[in-house]
């Protein structure tokens, strides 16, 4: 499938990366170590000892949800990712809406990791050396590194991500094996893999599930490389499947090991500011403590860098097609990178970190950085859940309209994926009782309405621009 535009659009550097890099793109955004070290303690106040079960359920749901995304990636590779898929399947209006929701989801990934790096290192340095450095000061360094790597180009970014990914996975798996081999706090048991272990019943499982879903955000990250990866129609869907399954299994095993190692009482008492893997290292392998710190920071950095790569390409694609200011579609002639989109996202990340951190705990208190991660992470997860629904509905509509839909892969599985994600989103609204999480779904609903209104304005005032949504695809090899 070739580009359907008559003018020659700005293009990213083709054939820059292979399958392994595409797998790393998705896997590193999910962040096995950071999601294992920091996400469960946002779930445990709700799902408690049953948090490993929540991750098993979430893995199954995400594999089903990924089906429609993979089918669209195979026929419509593009840097626009979901924005392009939804435009082609459900029309340009909904494509614009998907792009708006993607912006919330992807654009918040870099700042939450920047803040978490600062908060985690502030606590770690204080525990180890006794002096207190404000988390916001520490966060400046990863923010600068993220921006520089994005300007250098995709190869530098993915080489860095691959190194960090291999390091973090090796360390987190080693620690989990040590815990399980030692028998944990009260022996190895399968109880944490059952729903009955939830101290708060169904409500706890549902809310815990949203934070488990946060751990899977980014499984589709390879789709944003659709114009840069070799053989994208094969490699992008394969990268999605491989990364989702592999990282999901790592989550389940390692979080099961965490619950076994700490025991039910300690697990049920965890909060978002806890550092349970530091505790596991001190209990079972004190020599692992420095490695846990290294894995934590490297994983957060990998999510930050790859999340930034993804959102920059979505901004570029929408700017290139006129959905956003055309300056965002500019390509730096030397590095082949969307320079203006990089600068925009870098500034946005800094503003989010400072604003949310200041009002939710302060720029010197590590709770401020942890709350940036918890609150913004919850919001971005809700936004991406709606995008997943739209992407699966788009796949059904696209292949049905084309007249050659495969009953299972392109109809039944996408429909089931959309229903499962919709159920999670709606259940969150119905069952959530803890502020500020109670009003966060309504923030996303309000943003959805604004995006629909924006698409309506484009349809009335710039219909030629709206009609081009999703038009620029990767060229045939």
From TrEMBL:
It comes from the Bacteria. Keywords: Membrane, Transmembrane, Transmembrane helix. Signal peptide: none annotated. Gene3D superfamilies: Amino acid/polyamine transporter I (1.20.1740.10). The keyword Glycosyltransferase does not apply. It is a multi-pass membrane protein. It is found in: Membrane. The chain crosses the membrane at residues 17-38, 50-70, 82-109, 129-151, 163-185, 205-226, 238-263, 283-305, 341-360, 372-399, 411-431, 437-458. Coiled coil: none annotated. This is Amino acid permease.
